[in-house]
Amino acid sequence: TIGMVSLDSNGNMAAGGSTNGLQFKIPGRVSDTALIGSGAYVDNDVGGACATGDGDVMQRFVPSYHAVQLMRQGVAPDEACLDAIKRIAQFNPNFTGAVLALDKNGRYGAACHGMDSFPYSVMKQGWIDPEVLQIPCL
Amino acid sequence: SSSSPIVVTTWPFINATRNAFAKMMTPGATCLDAVEVGCRTCEDEQCDGSVGWGNHPAEDGETTLDALIIDGRTMSVGAVANLHRIKNAIGVARAVLQYSTHSLLVGESATKFAIDMGFKEEDLHSNGSIETWNKWKNGNCQPNFRRNVQPDPTTSCGPYTPKPQCDKEFSSHRQLPYGEHD
Questions:
Q1: Intervals of chain A under pLDDT 70
Q2: Nearest beta carbon to residue A12 from set B52, B65, B73
Q3: Long-range interactions of B45-49: CB distance < 8 A, separation 24+
């Protein structure tokens, strides 16, 4: 799954994602990627977030929306993602997944579970190439 | 107010991130265009087998796609799920946002909408996905996502029917095989 959040020079933001879902899924199964607030969420006044992982489990906790709402209250992006991940892990200790967030001020962060680490990509003005950042998981 | 443009992307999808950022830096382009271009790059490149056509077949061997795009300025949204026979899922999601007042279209109806909006209908199978599917069928259809059915889904393929006595609890200890997720 690809999840993405973008901030442009006018201060406008967008978010989204695309996936082919779980291998051998029951036909008709919908991943978290397509679900507003689970796969991604964004609000110009706050920031945006996106998610990837075990979609059957994650979509029940609306993690992208959760992270955006925490950022609305001033929580830093990485902390907001961590809180969203913790909620899921509380009910699903074996789940695999990650949440990535970017706020309207250009701060970004992520949190993950069920993996040793989670890599995400960032590109900013003046960079020649995107940078891949790796964070340890919960 | 002016901001410093940024794109963040799950996983080390370098080309998708680069293309999205480059698009955003193009005069007249928007952050929405950036997300569309970035996701489209991964659909075309079939990033890690989890995006786009030709991988992750369902139980019936078909690959179907899900996508979502949200405009943070207007809160407009376009999403598609269980999209059949169309490779450019994020484009169809953008079309839902642009050419309808709905938010989410699913299944064959979403495919019909896409075709009406000018998207190309194509086969999303690949030799790889067919081979993967055949191997899975020949291996008693493991893993699968069935429970409380008979025959025993941990040892057998379907067709399945409900098991009289169900375990009520949803096992929260389910663990997907490594790398097998959305």
A1: none
A2: B73
A3: B45/B15, B45/B16, B47/A2, B47/B11, B47/B13, B47/B16, B48/B11, B48/B13
DSSP state of B23: H
Minimal Cα–Cα distance from B31 to chain A, Å?
5
Among A1, A19, A52, A96, the one annotated catalytic:
A1
| Facing B136 at nearest CB: one of A24, A30, A93 | A24
The C-alpha atoms of residue B111 and residue B96 are separated, in whole angstroms, by 11
Least Cα separation, residue B135 to chain A (angstroms): 11
What average pLDDT score do residues B1-28 get? 93
Taking alpha carbons only, the member of A75, A19, A83 closest to residue A47 is: A75
> How far apart, in whole angstroms, are the C-alpha atoms of residue B177 and residue A25?
13
Query: Closest Cα partner for B159 from B170, B169, B146?
Result: B146
B31-45 helix and B14-24 helix, angle to the nearest 10 degrees: 150
Dihedral angle over CA of A136, B4, B5, B8, nearest 10: 10
Strands A108-113 and A97-103: what pairing?
Answer: antiparallel
Q: What is the ipTM of this complex?
A: 0.98
Q: Under an 8 A CB cutoff, do A92 and B174 touch? A: yes
What pLDDT digit, counting tens, does each position of B94-145 carry? 999 999 999 999 999 999 999 999 999 999 999 999 999 999 999 999 999 9
